[in-house]
Specification:
With about 200 residues, the chain is α+β, with helices and mostly antiparallel strands. The chain is built from five helices and seven strands.
Length: about 200
């Protein structure tokens, strides 16, 4: 059993708390807020991770490494995204959008998002909760920014045409980009503020 302490705490989302693996600083442990393995949303996401990682290298999505037992319950293990320049835990897109003096312009983020979208469509991957809080901004050695998805992957389509045909993947991702206002960092920031104020 892995023993987690509060000093390892990173943050939490709607369904899981995140901790640095105490024995491996390059791994993130996600503990479900409900101390059960029967949370359907988390189980669906893990199933999707397993499927998309089966035969593909996907550096733009944090890799899933299985589960392990901890003193706080069962943890899902993922890559922990770190900046190449400092080795610090990468901030999320949401973190950067809240800054008054960000290292990166909105135009740089929009270009990176379009690159990410192209990769998702190419590999026929859906990210239903594509928002700033679920995207880490990894700073590369050349000070460029690379977006890495850390949460929210998968879909619930009964007939998964999006898994088979890029046309349907693109159509779905276009709708998600519009819904989450990812065509404008200003609009996305307003959308997130509204979403989490209600």
């Amino acid at each position: 059993m892995v023993i987690i302490n509060e000093k390892d705490y990173i943050g939490k989302g709607g369904f899981q708390k995140c901790y640095i693996h105490p024995n491996n600083p390059n791994l993130c442990l996600k503990i479900r807020l409900k101390r059960t393995n029967k949370d359907p949303r988390v189980n669906r996401e893990i199933k999707y991770y397993k499927k998309i990682q089966k035969n593909k290298a996907l550096p733009f999505i944090a890799k899933y490494h299985g589960e392990l037992n901890t003193n706080m319950g069962v943890a899902s293990v993922y890559d922990l995204v770190r900046d190449e320049t400092t080795n610090k835990i990468a901030l999320t897109l949401h973190d950067y959008l809240k800054m008054e003096n960000s290292l990166f312009t909105d135009e740089m983020f929009l270009a990176a998002l379009n690159t990410l979208k192209t990769k998702l469509i190419k590999h026929k991957i859906i990210v239903r909760d594509l928002m700033g809080k679920n995207i880490c901004c990894k700073i590369r050695k050349n000070n460029a920014v690379e977006l890495v998805i850390v949460d929210g992957v998968g879909h619930r389509d009964f007939i998964p045409l999006v898994d088979w045909f890029s046309y349907f993947t693109k159509r779905k991702m276009d709708k998600i980009f519009i819904k989450k206002k990812l065509y404008s960092m200003r609009e996305h920031k307003k959308w997130v503020s509204f979403k989490y104020s209600n």
